[in-house]
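A quick aside before the break. I want you to see a complete sequence-to-structure record at least once, exactly as it would be stored in a machine-readable document. Don't worry about memorizing anything.
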Amino acid sequence: MLIQRRILSALVATILFSTTLVAQGPARFQSEIDRFKADTTDYTQTRDLILFTGSSTIRMWTSLKEDFPDRNVLNRGFGGSTMSELLYYADTLILRYRPKMIFIYEGDNDLAAGVTPDEIIGSARLLVTRIRKELPDATLCFLSAKPSLARWNLRDKYLEFNGKLSRLATEYDKVHYLDTWKPMLQADGNVMTDIFLEDGLHMNRKGYNIWKNTIEGFLNRST
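That is the input. The structure line, written in tokens, reads:
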């Protein structure tokens, strides 16, 4: 009963969030983007920089540096964002840092707002083209949309999107797809219930540990 109430509350919050998302557009992030611009550190001089960007799942990963202590990581997540908004801000959030490797998490909010998987993939393809033009030697890794209690009703759309994102990655050299969906499922195929905050959407420490292990395995294979 408690889990059912949490899912219902999360669904209501998701609907309200989606309405706001469509209405505001990229300009809603301007103050957050301005804070990134105000950081005058020359990250282009940072050896083997690994940049993480995307929506709130990335922004809320406050332990990123502690989770990857032997890597030069930089968090440029901006909460509530979509794939098209990351494309819009690609200069500020990705290209200016000239990273060696880029992890991207987008698509979650897009799907919740009613954007189709094909539309998201269209934005992702444009983003890859943009990054390839400016950073031809960088490795790009798309993180799959994660399962969650709040958006479990959209799981078929998520799986469709993840499949298309996986296929997109195969079309390019140095572009990868990393599955975060399966590691977050129970043996019965349902999403784990103890890896989220109260909103049923954002991850707690246990959830981030799953991501940490998944990404570390990829890094060990790739570097």
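Two observations worth writing down. Confidence is low (pLDDT under 50) at residues 1-23. The chain has one domain: 2-222. We'll return to this after the break.
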